[in-house]
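Need a sequence for this fold. Nothing fancy.
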């Protein structure tokens, strides 16, 4: 009996210190202001896609957010962004990258029972970019901050390479959206700001 117990202890210790592939590697990020919710990223085993969930910090899965894209050539993965409102009822989730891969934002509202998806306004305004001079490569809508519950500031970005000079161009605007009833709407649109990198 002692031998069996000792074997189990050694096996457990080996798994904890050497990360056995059968155990999931887990990363908890972006806790809500009230500490009740968070984002969890798990990798079931080496080489497998990383699963993303919106959870209660007790471990209960509330929203299955799918898997992060991993670029086969470089093994780089999508990055996650989660922005909470001050009252912890609104969450803006986005993924971005790698490289010029496009990203988008999804909004969730906690109705005291579950998180429900709230759609952004259709056809969000885009930054201005001269496509005769720039070849577009990427498009991303990212959450910036909640101005107040139900009112979100977003960044809308277009990026690409100059057709003649080969430089990287990034055009960006900041949009404020109102997400409360009766329906979502665009409240404010900033001016396009363009950056040029060698």
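Here you go.
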């Amino acid at each position: 009996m002692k031998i069996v117990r000792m074997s189990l202890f050694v096996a457990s210790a080996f798994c904890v210190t050497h990360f056995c592939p059968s155990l999931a590697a887990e990363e908890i990020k972006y806790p809500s202001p009230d500490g009740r919710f968070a984002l969890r990223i798990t990798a079931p085993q080496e080489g497998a896609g990383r699963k993303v969930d919106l959870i209660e910090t007790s471990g209960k899965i509330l929203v299955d957010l799918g898997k992060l894209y991993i670029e086969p050539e470089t093994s780089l993965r999508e990055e996650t962004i989660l922005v909470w409102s001050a009252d912890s009822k609104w969450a803006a989730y986005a993924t971005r990258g790698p490289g010029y891969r496009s990203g988008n934002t999804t909004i969730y509202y906690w109705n005291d029972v579950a998180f429900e998806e709230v759609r952004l306004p259709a056809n969000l305004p885009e930054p201005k970019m001269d496509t005769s001079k720039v070849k577009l490569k990427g498009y991303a809508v990212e959450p910036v901050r909640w101005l107040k519950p139900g009112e979100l500031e977003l960044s809308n970005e277009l990026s690409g390479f100059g057709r003649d000079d080969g430089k990287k161009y990034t055009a960006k605007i900041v949009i404020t959206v109102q997400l409360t009833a009766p329906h979502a709407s665009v409240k404010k649109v900033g001016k396009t700001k363009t950056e040029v990198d060698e």
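For context: Residues 1-23 have pLDDT under 50 and may be disordered.
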